[in-house]
Design brief:
With 607 residues, the chain is mostly helical. The chain has 3 domains: 254 residues, no CATH class; 243 residues, no CATH class; 93 residues, no CATH class. Strands 1-2 form a two-stranded antiparallel sheet. Helix 2 runs parallel beside helix 5 and helix 11 runs parallel beside helix 15. The longest helix is centred in the N-terminal third of the chain and has 53 residues.
């Protein structure tokens, strides 16, 4: 099955990208009603569980899926069909071990973390999410295996199943906990004559006290949805593999050489995985240091010259103060305000990189297979194609984000409690928009280095980039004239360092010479025209139809933003075709792509 339906890099990436978009939509359908149900305080308990879960999960999952994918792809390219099956069995044992260890570590850290870092009431949520690490590790055996077979459908479907499990079960459990808790409160107060009630074994005397007892357990119910989703996805992949298998024929297996012993394969997997585990560990430590450093240096900047900092952000801070959302005399609260504003920009910063990293996942087995048989033509075409698609997606999306930073932020946050922070966030979003292509290509380049066996290089580049980032944060964020914007400079510098180091190494060791005109210059020119169009169109429309404050999302500001985006897309597509910046394979993966490609070829519009 899998070998018969082996997908091209672009087909596989498109499948994964569609899945990621669906997962993001499902995530919004989960988080918005959850916040309405359990409130900001309840979301705080939910987020606290994620803050400790995410780094342990990332380290547990680092390396082994990539190792499995690469080893399977290499062996299939060499005609060794017995070995992939042994690789899957060995990886399953390793993944189960890693999953158990990761879960036990999270369980061991749960109480100290809740007691000394977060809040003791976060403990139920942390305990509920811990088993998810085991099931995610278990399912990664199958994901890595099918990705190595260059068949991305099982991974894509399992991601959606996982997200749906979180949505349905998480919201249902949170609703049940809230309903039961409030019923206990109402009946208890009624029986006691509005004196007190017992809610989940705790005596409370007011609705506020009842909520403080109920919401941590409701958050735990929501987090349990994450674990159930991972169980559902693991079950799907297990059943899928039992039914569909891997498609190897009896002839292929009989004519294949005997597989290497399991201990040899295990050592090879670990050898490939260790540099990636180290890289994930360094990255997570860097993020932790980054969080602490930025906030401490912001505090230093305010202590050094609060007047300069407040004047720089006067539009946002004055509005927040007038709306009683900020105490201007509390420097610690100002630090949190600026830090929270910075966090708002990250929601946009990560959108495109989350899509393009799927391209790296799809490219890794294809490049590993080509590398194993020394297929120079496919090595070059795969590297060029990945870089080109990253540019085709990242450049226009980033320039459009930069050109429409304030309108987009107003569209998303303009009616919420954080609307006053938009003047602080907009400049951050402009810079991140310009740097989006750089961020978009970062992970796919790392994946391609892993495919050719140079897993050590990303580790070295991450170390150098992390040091540069932390030093940059320390110097710039602590400067009152720069403050929070120094964190943006540090992040961009981080990506400049790792992309430069990794890309230079990839081209050096693969001995591939890139046609930079087709890969970067043509998309850059088209993206610049796209950004100018978006900026000019919105500016003109906002003058013709002045934007007024509105509680509804359906207002002239929204209409102007949507029209500006639409015109920018049209200009980008037309300019890209006129410059012959699109290849036939880029079009062929779209619905009815072959027909579209033939027509474009007829008029000489494909590169």
């Amino acid at each position: 099955m899998a070998t018969e339906k082996k997908q091209s890099v672009l087909n596989g990436a498109m499948m994964l990208m569609v899945a990621v978009v669906l997962v993001k939509v499902i995530g919004l359908l989960f988080k918005i009603p959850l916040t309405d149900m359990i409130g900001a305080a309840g979301r705080g308990y939910f987020n606290s569980a994620y803050e400790i879960y995410t780094p342990i999960f990332a380290i547990s999952m680092a390396g082994l899926p990539v190792a499995v994918s690469r080893m399977v792809a290499e062996n299939i390219a060499l005609g060794n069909y017995r070995e992939p099956r042994m690789i899957r069995k060995v990886s399953q044992r390793l993944f189960i071990l890693v999953g158990i260890v990761g879960t036990l570590i999270l369980l061991a850290l749960a109480y100290p973390y809740a007691r000394f870092v977060a809040d003791e009431r976060s403990l139920p949520a942390v305990l509920c999410v811990a088993p998810s690490i085991f099931f995610c590790c278990y399912m990664s055996t199958y994901r890595g295996y099918y990705e190595g077979l260059r068949y991305m459908t099982p991974t894509a479907i399992s991601q959606v199943v996982e997200a749906l499990g979180k949505l349905v079960v998480g919201l249902l459990l949170a609703k049940v906990v809230m309903t039961v808790g409030m019923n206990q409160y109402d009946s208890g107060m009624l029986a006691s004559g509005n004196v007190s009630a017992v809610v989940f074994g705790n005596e409370v005397t007011s609705l506020a006290e009842a909520n403080s007892v109920i919401r941590p357990w409701a958050a735990a119910g929501a987090v349990m949805g994450v674990t159930v989703g991972s169980v559902a996805a693991a079950a799907f992949l297990t059943i899928y593999h039992k039914i569909k298998g891997d498609g190897f024929t009896r002839t292929q297996l009989v004519n294949s050489p005997k597989s290497a012993p399991s201990d040899v394969l295990a050592k090879e997997m670990v050898k490939i995985a260790i540099p990636m585990v180290v890289s994930a560990l360094i990255l997570n430590i860097t993020n932790l240091v980054d969080t602490v450093t930025i906030q401490s240096r912001l505090a230093h900047a305010i202590e050094t010259d609060s007047t300069t900092v407040l004047q720089m952000h006067s539009a946002a801070i004055n509005e927040a103060v007038s709306l009683s959302r900020l105490n201007i005399n509390d420097s610690a609260e100002i630090v949190k305000y600026l830090w929270g504003s910075y966090g708002m920009a990250l929601d946009f910063r990560n959108l495109i990189p989350n899509l393009t990293l799927q391209l790296g996942i799809s490219a890794l087995p294809a490049l590993a297979a080509a590398w194993a048989v020394k297929d120079r033509k496919n090595i070059k075409s795969t590297i060029e194609m990945v870089l080109r698609i990253c540019m085709l997606i990242g450049l226009p999306a980033g320039f459009g984000m930069a050109a429409l930073a304030k309108p987009l932020l107003t569209l998303i946050y303009g009616r919420g409690l954080s609307s006053d922070a938009i003047p602080v966030v907009a400049p951050i979003m402009v810079v991140y928009g310009i740097a989006t292509a750089l961020m978009a290509v970062s992970t796919p380049i790392t994946n391609m280095l892993q495919a050719i066996g140079r897993t050590d290089i990303p580790v070295k580049s991450v170390v150098v980039g992390a040091i540069c980032k932390i030093v940059c944060n320390y110097i710039l964020v602590g400067n009152p004239k720069i403050n929070v914007y120094g964190a943006v400079a540090g992040t961009v510098l981080f990506y400049v360092v790792i992309v430069t180091c990794n890309l230079t190494s990839l081209l050096k060791f693969s001995k591939v010479k890139i046609n930079w005109g087709a890969i970067a210059l043509k998309p850059l020119i088209s993206a610049a025209l796209c950004g100018v169009t978006a900026y000019a169109a919105y500016g003109l429309l906002s003058r013709i139809f002045p934007v007024e404050a509105s509680e509804s999302i359906l207002n002239m500001g929204t209409v102007s933003t949507v029209i500006a985006v639409g015109l920018a897309v049209v200009v980008y597509v037309i300019s890209l075709l006129l410059l012959k910046g699109v290849a036939r394979e880029d079009i062929s993966v779209l619905p009815k792509g072959e027909k579209i490609a033939k027509k474009l070829e007829k008029y000489g519009l494909l590169g």
